[in-house]
Amino acid sequence: MKTVSSQELRNLRNKFRESKQHKYLSEVSLIADKESTAMFNVAGMQQLIPYLMGKPHDLGKRVHNIQRCIRTVDIDEVGDSSHLTFFEMMGNRSLGDYFKKEAVERSWEFLTSPDYLAIDPKKLAVTVFQGDENAPKDEETAMYWKNIGMTKDRISYLPAKHNRWSPGPVWPCGPDTEIFYRVGAGDLPPAGSNVENDEDNWMEIWNNVFMEFYRDESGTLTKLKQQNVDTGMGFERMCKVLQDKDTVYESDLFLPIIQSIEKYTNLGYKNNQRRMRIVADHLRTAIVLINDGCIPSNVGAGYVLRMIIRRMYYNLILLNDSVSDGYESLFNEAIAFFGKQRKLTNPTAILQAIKDELAQFKKTIANGSKLLQQMIDKNPAQLAGKDIFMLYDTYGFPVELTREIASEKGIKLDETGFQKSLEEAREKSRQWTKEMFKKGIDRSKYLDGVQPTKFIGYDQTISESQKLIKDFEVDGQRVLIFDQTPFYAESWGQTWDKGKIVLDDGTEVEVIDVKKYEWVFLHLVK
User: Fold this and answer.
1) 281-318 residue pLDDT tens
2) Is 330 within 8 Å of 284 (Cβ atoms)?
3) Cα–Cα distance, 345 to 244 (Å, whole number)
4) Helix pair 347-378, 300-319: axis angle to 10 deg
5) What contacts 385, CB < 8 A, 6 or more positions away?
6) Number of domains in the chain
7) Which residue of 33, 39, 75, 343 lies most exposed, with the fewest beta carbons within 10 A?
8) Both 344 and 226 in a single domain?
9) Are 484 and 511 contained in the same domain?
């Protein structure tokens, strides 16, 4: 396999798809449009929903691009060898044109041909859909893999949770076939090794989704009027593979910024990998989100951006909190570096947005540190779990900072008590949900006469014109219902929006969950 830089990979991908008569599709903003049920663009195909359902596309039936995406569902995993909050997805689509056979053959050609990536076929394995009540076992796709040279022992049949894909709760979807690259020890995988029996030693690099169904809000699948192919190849993961690096962070997409973090923290990457990776990933994500028009706030995408910037910063100060300019020079270098990969419209405004957010966060840290010190003064032997939880839950003070400060002062932490308080809060929410949504409950005492809530979150994330319809408690949990809301309710795996509400009397409450029952949005607040 030849070494391929990130820019070379972009060029090879474009060249290959153009040779297969695909037209380049301009990418869209990271912030999902009002037609989407997601907060961000989580996949390259989101802008193509109408065309997957049969609407003719101006570019024809074959399109390709490299779409920037945001996913934060796995944010706690960032810092390992592969998870990222911002990533680029190389995709090609057939809109009612070619289907399974051509998708398999072209994937194989691009990966293994000496004219393109020249990957050893012996280092590849695939998965296909094992079938369920909605769709049969995908023997057809398995046959095409065998026909081009994939050995039988490298093909795994997996269930829908692995091999059926949709980018959101209500969208076109379908079974898929996924391609994996061997990352285990040794030059080649042992005989019989595949994704099903040796998962840890294989890394997914490409996904071909056969979009032939539409899933509605009830979860019902119906056949689309045309068969489509939607593919996704993770750009960062392919750079890792093609540059023979242990993780994506050692590839040319990240290594220069990791080196800058080393320089400004005066620490080595080897012994601080997780924190430096979090800083690099979150800083990159913040830069591209601000570039696309997102600003830190307490609602929607702005709230996610706020949490990303703050998580980036407290990991930085845990590495070294005595940098003279507060890491402004690092931020400038990161903006310049990532600007070479993707054009940034206003680097100065990006830096200012980060600085403004950190100015607020530093106040949170200062207040939390003061409260923490007061707690330590009262009990210098051990910090109570309920106090750790209060700092985290009420004052937004990161648990990681509490642990670090306590460690420096030789103070023990009641981690068991903290986890107990955390679990009690979660259990309270679960019990409320159980009470509110269990079968047979008389909901009329809560929702009698309440009309469906108008959801306005597709167009705006801040609203001042809503009317409070109902304010009540269930098992100690306060619930607010409005005539309209910008807060997205938890649905089909898509998490709810977080933020704050200022009531007519000036009281500010935090939204900790949003549920939906018969189109009435229930705002759980504290």
Assistant:
1) 999 999 999 999 998 886 678 888 998 999 999 999 99
2) no
3) 33
4) 70
5) 413, 414, 415, 416, 417, 418, 419, 420, 421
6) 3
7) 343
8) no
9) yes
Question: What pairing do the DSSP bridges indicate for beta strands 454-455 and 484-485?
Answer: parallel
Taking only the tens place, the pLDDT of each residue in 216-246 is 877 788 899 999 999 999 999 999 999 999 9
Q: Is residue 390 part of a domain?
A: no
pTM of this structure: 0.74
Tokens standing for residue 250: 């050692």
Residues 74, 77, 81, 84, CA torsion sign: positive
What are the residues whose beta carbons fall under 8 Å from the beta carbon of 108, sequence distance 6 or more? Answer: 121, 148, 149, 150
Tokens of 67: 């779409």
Mean pLDDT value across residues 465-489: 85
Rounded CA separation 124/201 (Å): 11
Does 162 fall in a domain?
yes
**440 pLDDT above the threshold of 50:** no
Tokens for 247, please give them. 């993780």
Residue 387 lies in a domain: no
- Reduced to 3 states (helix: H, G, I; strand: E, B; else coil), residue 482 is strand
Query: What's the domain range around 108?
Result: 6-245
158 and 25 in one domain? Answer: yes
Q: How far is CA 154 from CA 193, 198, 379, in A?
A: 7, 11, 60
| Site of tokens 């590839």 | 251
CA atoms within 13 A on the CB side of 404: 15
The domain boundary, picked from 325, 355, 378, lies at: 378
Would you state the structure tokens that stand for residue 454, as one six-digit string?
């108008």
- The residue among 378, 396, 428 that closes a domain is 378
Closest of 258, 256, 243, 249 to residue 79, by C-alpha: 249
- Which H/E stretch holds residue 173? strand 172-182
DSSP state of 496: P
More confident: 179 or 519: 179
Q: Whole-angstrom Cα distance, residue 324 to residue 438?
A: 56
DSSP state of 251: S
Residues 38 and 17 placed together within one structural domain of the fold: yes
**What DSSP state is assigned to residue 509?**
E
Structure tokens at 42: 């989580």
- Segment among 74-83, 110-119, 333-342 with least mean pLDDT: 74-83
CB 249 within 8 A of CB 277: yes
